[in-house]
Amino acid sequence: MTKLLDVQAISKYYVHKDGWMPGQRICALEPLSFSLERGETLAIMGETGSGKSTIAKLIAGAERASAGEIFLNGQAMSSMTDQQRCRHVRMIFQDSLRSLNPQITVGKQLCEPLIFNTQMSPQDQKQRVHEVLRKVGLLPDHYHFYPHMLASGQQQRVCIARAIVLEPQIVVADEAFVALDPSIRAQIINLILDLQEDMGISFIFVSHSAEIVKHVSDKILIMHRGKMIEFGTTRALINHPEEQLTKTLLHSEHKYKVPLHSTTKE
Amino acid sequence: MPNANIYFQQREPSPLRQLWLHVNSNPFAVVAFYILSLALVVMLGSAWLTPYSPDAQFADAILQPPSWDESGEINFLFGTDDLGRDILSRIIAGSVYSLGYPLIAVVIAAVIGISIGAWAGMSRGVQSSTLNHLLDVILSIPSLLLALVIIAMLGPSLINVMFAITLVLIPQFIHVVHNAIYDERYKEYVTASRLNGVTRWYMLTRVIFPNITSVLVMQTTFALSTAILDIAALGFLGLGVQAPAPEWGTMLARSLDQVYVSPWMMVLPGLALFLTILSINVLGDSIRAAIAERVRNS
């Protein structure tokens, strides 16, 4: 049986062009390979600018790889159109408000993927959107809301609803939980875990937070300056990290502990 | 269906409605809006609203002052001109030339300019630049001068003036639409829509267009005030609408001879022109302020 997602030596270069001179090639991602099974959760960690978001965007199809190939169920993704791809892979963006169209109601935006990827009648589409809104903990009433009327946690839920409305196999979340406060973050992570149990989705998510990664993921991928420096199961990486960076990232919460007697009370 | 009316709910208005509320809170903009609406209604109903035919001459009432003057009469509300024609009828009938024709020119320019601009905005690279700068050479010539050149070649007439004004307005629309679409195109919500697998046509009309309508409304109001001024100016110079037609600029030019004897012949059409252009500019300006306000808040 083929793997759900098989990434083979993908890399990404940006050409930084300055005036008429031939551009300078900037490497965002050096060739890397990994694979993911059905229902697994992969966390991508790394410092800022290490190419985590680039991987997420390449898998979701928001950008094209400069070289290499991504296989989905054994089929090359570069030969798929946006329509074919979005039935299998969906993305949750970093900034939920900016990734929602400000002039269109939430309901219409959630119908959009259904119009172009299913043969549902308008009533069925509406029905489906209502179901999905309930699933992510919103009300069918939110169908008629505009994005700016919602709180940021609700906007995040709308983005999740948009990602799961087509019942995809993979959902890619690009630092989707950074802007949320801890309680809402916990709610949304639990929501994602529930959805994963119900629908058998594979999650790929980019995160800074070691706690979330330990709690949620099955595998971890550590990035550093566009290179993959470590890839393995969560347990292996926590217990036996080979690189110093892995150790730092995964145990970061201990480093910030303030010594007990250094408060301003003195 | 929203199950409303059970509890009191405060609903936040939609983005376009927010814009309207903001414009509505400015009294000058509201007054301008009403003046403009009145002018449009008068223009559309001019065939039924004129008390007399604009060309009818009353030999017994030549140079009659307006009705509020001591020697004025109520059956000629705004007085008559040196040929005994009713000025109120002429101003009402003239709104077709001075407001209706510029409106048509702007609509034609907007349709052509927006389609080319949208095409340029949605394509990339050389194609985009070519379309964007297609008519840029026209921008280098002032609109009045271009109209004069065309009139010098084809002779003075309203059609030639319309042609010149439309031609001048098109590149402005192209640039505004191209820039607006270009700004929106790389925002995340457009990427998100692309990943929804939408077609390019849907992307343009349903995803991007609702976000640039306010820019288009603003550009249209400014184009309209330019077009009105140009048609009136060419009429004043005797190069646009020809003499017996009651165009406001032409009426101003004719009244120059009798300006000391009968100032109302000059003041009244001038006032009509002034109020129309002022209200369009005030409205356009307050829409722009409202957009800026919304951008700052979001």
UniProtKB/TrEMBL annotation, chain A:
InterPro entries: AAA+_ATPase, ABC_transp_ATP-bind, ABC_transporter-like_ATP-bd, ABC_transporter-like_CS, P-loop_NTPase
Residue ranges of every copy of the ABC transporter domain listed in the record: 5-250
Membrane-related topology note: Peripheral membrane protein
GO biological process, one term: transmembrane transport
Entry-linked Pfam families: ABC_tran (PF00005)
Keywords of the record: ATP-binding, Cell inner membrane, Cell membrane, Membrane, Nucleotide-binding, Transport
Gene3D superfamilies with a match to the protein in the record: P-loop containing nucleotide triphosphate hydrolases (3.40.50.300)
SMART domains to which the protein is assigned, alphabetical: AAA (SM00382)
Name of protein: Peptide ABC transporter ATP-binding protein
A Gene Ontology molecular function term of the record: ATP hydrolysis activity
Domain of life: Bacteria
GO cellular component terms attached to this protein's record: plasma membrane
Family the entry assigns: Belongs to the ABC transporter superfamily.
Principal place of residence: membrane
Subcellular localization(s) per the UniProt record: Cell inner membrane
